[in-house]
């Protein structure tokens, strides 16, 4: 087994060694996570891979970028996730005229009964445990950058004063890959803050039949809460305590380092940094827990390679002109593990 790091748990506590994990506690948490997945599946049809990847992201303590055309239940997924995980959820529709203060909040000048004036901070919608940033690429870079500190540090700064965000805190952003008019590409620094880019595709015929029958009648299925914030935080801490075999650590390093320009592929312009390896390390643990296993395998690394790496690398114009995609490059690297 690989030695465990002294990483900090989502609630700020230091993770305990893997040997101290109670098998009963881990199995109970895994069963609860699978119950949450099943509860989401009562509302979201035909998006099993998407649901799993978003759950893995949240269990890892990270943020996800959902990329798909309109009408594929991305908003419904976030709302359902908030209900099932017991997280207060807020939605912000990103538009070109959206300002950073519209997300973070602002200070107003108040006057008390004695006539003394002071500034009072009014929190914005970012002060929630689950923030949906709808069509995030429609806002200006200045507004997009307002999320950087929050996503990385779990706090925001207003007028030189730091304001901590609720824990746990997750951003699920959506993006339309087709309509590019009036949009601003997300900077690489912000893309790297997303643990995964989850591509949301069209459902198959059977799943779409389920959608038609379940959503056009007089009643619709309602999800029930399975977690609360405290239980989810405990599950996130447990994920960080799961032991990781040396073979998985080496597979993560081989994959991430092989996706960089200096690895020999001339078509790669820039590649993933160490944060990608950290995301894979946490993601493989969370995927193992979701499947009821207490340690990840190389198969978990292969399964998460594309959603973790696809937004952390870019190919040359020549490669794109030849029809080569980042998913193809990542898939080729994953086959060698």
TrEMBL record:
Spans annotated as Disordered: 1-20
Name of the protein: MoxR-like ATPase
Metal-binding among keywords: no
Domain ChlI/MoxR AAA lid residue range list: 268-329
UniProt KW ATP-binding keyword: yes
Pfam family of the protein (one): AAA_lid_2
UniProt-listed CDD domains: AAA
InterPro entries, sorted: ATPase_AAA-3, CbbQ/NirQ/NorQ/GpvN, ChlI/MoxR_AAA_lid, P-loop_NTPase
Matching PANTHER family: MAGNESIUM-CHELATASE SUBUNIT CHLD, MOXR FAMILY PROTEIN
GO molecular function: ATP binding; ATP hydrolysis activity
UniProt keyword terms in alphabetical order: ATP-binding, Nucleotide-binding
Transmembrane segments: none
Organism: Rhodothalassium salexigens DSM 2132
Family membership: Belongs to the MoxR family.
Residue intervals of the ATPase AAA-3 domain: 63-196
Source superkingdom: Bacteria
């Amino acid at each position: 087994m690989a030695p465990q790091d002294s990483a900090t748990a989502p609630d700020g506590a230091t993770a305990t060694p893997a040997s101290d994990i109670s098998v009963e506690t881990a199995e109970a948490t895994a069963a609860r996570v699978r119950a949450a997945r099943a509860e989401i599946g009562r509302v979201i049809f035909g998006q099993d891979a998407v649901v799993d990847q978003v759950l893995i992201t949240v269990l890892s303590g990270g943020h996800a970028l959902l990329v798909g055309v309109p009408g594929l239940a991305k908003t419904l997924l976030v709302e359902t996730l908030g209900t099932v995980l017991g997280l207060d959820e807020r939605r912000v529709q990103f538009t070109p005229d959206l300002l950073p203060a519209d997300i973070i909040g602002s200070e107003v000048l108040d006057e008390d009964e004695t006539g003394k004036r002071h500034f009072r901070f009014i929190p914005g919608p970012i002060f929630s445990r689950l923030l949906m940033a709808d069509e995030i690429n429609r806002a200006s870079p200045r507004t997009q950058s307002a999320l950087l500190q929050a996503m990385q540090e779990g706090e925001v700064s207003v007028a030189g004063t730091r304001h901590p965000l609720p824990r746990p805190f997750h951003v699920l952003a959506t993006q339309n890959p087709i309509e590019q008019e009036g949009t601003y590409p997300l900077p690489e620094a912000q893309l790297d803050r997303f643990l995964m880019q989850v591509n949301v595709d069209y459902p198959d015929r059977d799943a779409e039949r389920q959608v038609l029958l379940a959503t056009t009648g007089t009643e619709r299925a309602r999800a029930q809460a399975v977690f609360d914030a405290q239980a989810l935080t405990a599950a996130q801490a447990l994920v960080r305590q799961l032991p990781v075999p040396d073979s998985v650590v080496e597979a993560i390093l081989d994959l991430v380092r092989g996706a960089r320009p200096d690895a020999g592929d001339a078509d790669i312009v820039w590649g993933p940094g160490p944060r990608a390896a950290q995301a894979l390390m946490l993601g493989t643990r969370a995927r193992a827990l979701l499947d009821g296993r207490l340690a990840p395998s190389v198969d978990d690394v292969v399964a998460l390679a594309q959603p973790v790496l696809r937004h952390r690398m870019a190919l040359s114009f020549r490669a794109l002109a030849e029809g080569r995609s980042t998913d193809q490059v990542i898939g080729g690297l994953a086959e060698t593990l």
